[in-house]
Amino acid sequence: MHIPELISDLALMLLVAGIMTLIFKRFRQPLVLGYIITGFMVGPYFTLVPAVTDTVSISTWSEIGIIILMFSLGLEFNLHKLASVGGTAIITAITEVVSMLAVGFVCGQLMGWSVMNSVFLGGMLSMSSTTIIIKAFEDLGLKGKKFTELVFGTLIVEDIAGIFMMVMLSTIAVSQGISGGELAVHLLKMIFYLALWLILGIYLLPTILKDVQNLMNDETLLIVSLGICFGMVFLAHHLGFSSALGSFLAGSLLAGTIHAEKIEHINKPIRDLFGAVFFISVGMMVDPALIVKYAGPIVLITIATIFGKAALSSLGVLLSGQPLKTAILCGFSLAQIGEFSFIIASLGISLGVISDYIYSIVVAVSVITTFTTPFVIKAAEGSYYYLDKYLPNKVSKYLNRHTSEDQSETEKDGDWVAFFKKYFSRLILYSVIMLGIILAGTSLLEPFLAAHLPPKLADILATLVTLILMAPFLKQCLFRKNEYFIPLWFKSATNHLPLIMLLLLRKGTLLFLVMLPISIMLELSTPYILAIAVGLVFLIARSDWLINPYLKIEARFLANFNERKLEARKGKDIGHSWLDERIYVSKFRCSDQVAVLDQTLANLPGTEHSKLKVIKIIRGGKHINIPEGSEHIRANDIVFVAGSDRMLDSFAILTQVELDKKADGMYATLREFIKNQEAYAEDDQLFCYAVTVEKESDLSGVAIKDSKIKSEWGGFLLGLERNLYPILAPDINMHLQENDLVWILGTQEMAGKLAKDDLL
Predict the structure, then answer these.
(1) Residue 614's pLDDT band (boundaries 50, 70, 90)?
(2) Rounded to an integer, what distance in angstroms lies between the CA atom of residue 691 and that of residue 435?
(3) How far is the C-alpha of 140 from the C-alpha of 148, rounded, in Å?
(4) Shortest CA distance to 560 belongs to which of 226, 199, 217, 261?
(5) Which end of the chain is more exposed for a tag (fewer CB within 10 A), N or C?
(6) What is the pLDDT of residues 165-192, one digit of tens each?
(7) Residue 359 contacts by C-beta under 8 Å, 6 or more apart in sequence?
(8) How confident is the model at residue 411 (pLDDT cuts 50, 70, 90)?
(9) What share of residues in the chain are helix, strand, coil (percent, to 5)?
(10) Do 495 and 485 contact (CB within 8 A), yes or no?
(11) Crossing angle (nearest 10°) for helices 547-561 and 180-211
């Protein structure tokens, strides 16, 4: 029987790789270098070992290797991880990537290379090597040091930047030039699809995997995960993006599920196999003659890599507010290139836009910087002392005044920054979802209906369905309050105009989104489109029934998004500390000068939209627990209010009352308030009860506002847990579901009523 060339080639490659990895393990060197040397040995430029013959098949395996490597990289990444890296890592990574892109481009131009070679060289030099850095930290006993956490955070952001860079480089390569407009459009298109995939993936994928969890064993989970990976690769390719983007995105979606560690474990042998083939294929392209021929460029690029990345990465850390010593330790650790640079080089080769000799040069530079990395890291501390000794006094004083070793722990947003963060994140999130609905309506639903119905009717139906699906998100985006709005409004009159303009911007954006499907699918003039859109927005604003569908969607999305964190709580005796951490109680005494005097609780400023609760009024020694909204505030009343710290702050600003705080300037938690009621008579005390909603319970399937909690039991629903996800002060339109754990504040009398209804 004839053995295919691919089989004999794989046998040769893996046998030689096995020997080389043993040797490199023995001398404690990175295995990546062993694979590259293996590739050189079985390649066309080394005659002592038989050469690989079926290069086309090996090239295909190499492309699969890139896909699997990017998928594995995605599995190690999730949005929680990105959020935890902090401003230092983001600023450092952006500074390093942008600066090294420029350094690489300038080096290429100085050597007389083409524009495309120079651009791709910049991309290759901007990526540091996670594998090499981890190896160096382990060998030097530095793992666990404070600065190494900043380095790993920077590498996470670098990986994300690398994905975006590959998309940009692909666009530049296809257009054979740098077209700013085309690049911007392509990048915006990628960001939109990326956000849409993430939102849909987070909403659907964990739910589907949870539903079939009992059917999953290692084999089925492996097949499903790889199916998702290659499916996303196909989708990305269909939309004009790289396969690396699709596989990375598939990995990052699965990284947020409870199956992430298991998927990573069962995929590890596949990653090791195909990753080895990829790095071996890199080594096969190394031509010793080209290395000798381009020795000058190799030396220049190596020097630019080591000194450029060390200096510019240090500058990035310094700009983020870290002290000089931390900046130099971090910057010197990033002074190398590695596996991501090979992937970028492979992209350029596959697109046919860079010269073949680039591969040999990049491999040579990577090998050199791999060996220099430990020495550069060792030199960091000495370099700091030398630099600190000879820095001008003015510079040293400036740095000491404007940097802090605890910067990463003290990165706290001001009110404006926090407002912008919430404002734009919500606006972008809702806009992406609604644009996705519009895209589905115009490109899928409308053509489908047009094939079965008269054209006019199909257009009208498609438009109506699209707008109905958009309506819950429009409702929330129009009227959901930003808790930082009130503090900013009352902080300064100069804030009023920008806040008003931002509100108008939000409403204008949403009006445009309503007009978009109408203008695309219905042949109407602009005035009619505008009139219909304004009417629909007004109708949506008046429709409370839209709130519950959205709240169900949001609850599932948030539970799926936090699935791994919530899963970690199972089986641990951690109680429900979120109630302590997020619900606070404070009080104020109502004097004759207080603005809230004689107002009813229902009309109290700050309680309608902030969901702040007035839980007790002490009037002349009498305790009014869980007072009705019709209750008036009288002079000398002691009023107790409960909510989040931000709610309490906003309430104090709006009402101009002085709320009690502890010695440390914080509000007392709900648990502390309940514990400190010993001075009250038993009938005057308040308690918090946790009630699980059973299938046949009076609470199951009922909106909070229509439940017995306030009307019959005389209590307040402070929060609930759904699938372990805590929801503080839920909207009164939210429907309670089976297995929800609801937290109700009330008296002992209420406890008796709960027991009577078999809820306690």
Answers:
(1) confident
(2) 40
(3) 12
(4) 199
(5) N
(6) 877 777 776 665 544 556 566 666 767 7
(7) 282, 285, 286, 345, 349
(8) very low
(9) 70, 5, 25
(10) no
(11) 90
Token pair, residue 614, equals 């007035």
Residue with tokens 């929060």: 719
Backbone angles phi, psi at 617, to 5 degrees: -130, 130
**Rounded-to-integer distance, Cα 671 and Cα 311, Å:** 51
Compute CA distances 126 → 107, 330, 341, 483, whole Å.
Answer: 13, 15, 8, 40
Give the chain's radius of gyration (CA, Å).
Answer: 31
For residues 447 and 295, give the distance between their C-alpha atoms in angstroms, rounded to a whole number: 60
- Look at strands 584-589 and 668-669 and give their pairing: antiparallel
Q: How far apart are CA 638 and CA 620, in angstroms?
A: 9
**What 3-state class would DSSP assign to 642?**
strand
Tokens for 97? 């990537």
Mean pLDDT, the chain, integer? 80
Q: For residue range 665-688, what is the model confidence (pLDDT) as tens digits? A: 788 888 888 888 777 877 788 888
Give the span between the Cα atoms of 517 and 547, in whole angstroms.
22
- The whole-angstrom separation of Cα 190 and Cα 212 is 31
Q: What is the spatial distance between Cα 82 and Cα 138, in angstroms, rounded to a whole number?
A: 23
Instruction: Give the count of beta carbons closer than 10 Å to the beta carbon of residue 225.
Output: 25
- Tokens for 373? 């990395």
83, 89, 95, 100 alpha-carbon torsion, rounded to 10°: -110
| Non-local CB neighbours of 222 within 8 Å, separated by 6+ positions | 263, 266, 267, 270
Burial class (CB in 10 A: 0-12, 13-18, 19+), 176: exposed
Total-model pTM: 0.68
Neighbours of 451 (CB within 10 A): 8
* Cα 755 to Cα 746: distance, rounded to the nearest angstrom: 13
Name the token pair of 88. Answer: 């230092």
What letter represents residue 554's amino acid? E
Pairing state of beta strands 638-643 and 613-619? antiparallel
> How far apart are alpha carbons 701 and 717 in whole angstroms?
15
Tokens of 75: 């599995």
The residue type of 137 is: F
3-state helix/strand/coil string of 293-359: HCHHHHHHHHHHHHHHHHHHHHHHHHHCCCCHHHHHHHHHHCCCCCHHHHHHHHHHHHHCCCCCHHH
Residue 413 has pLDDT above 50, yes or no: no
d(CA 156, CA 140): 22
Cβ atoms of 247 and 229 closer than 8 Å: yes
Strands, sheet with 584-589, edge to edge from the N-terminal-most edge strand: 622-625, 613-619, 638-643, 584-589, 668-669
Residue whose tokens read 């930047």: 161
Least Cα distance to 133 among 406, 364, 335 occurs for 335
Measured CA to CA, the distance from residue 120 to residue 105 in angstroms comes to 8
Backbone angles phi, psi at 535, to 5 degrees: -60, -40
What amino acid occupies position 100?
M
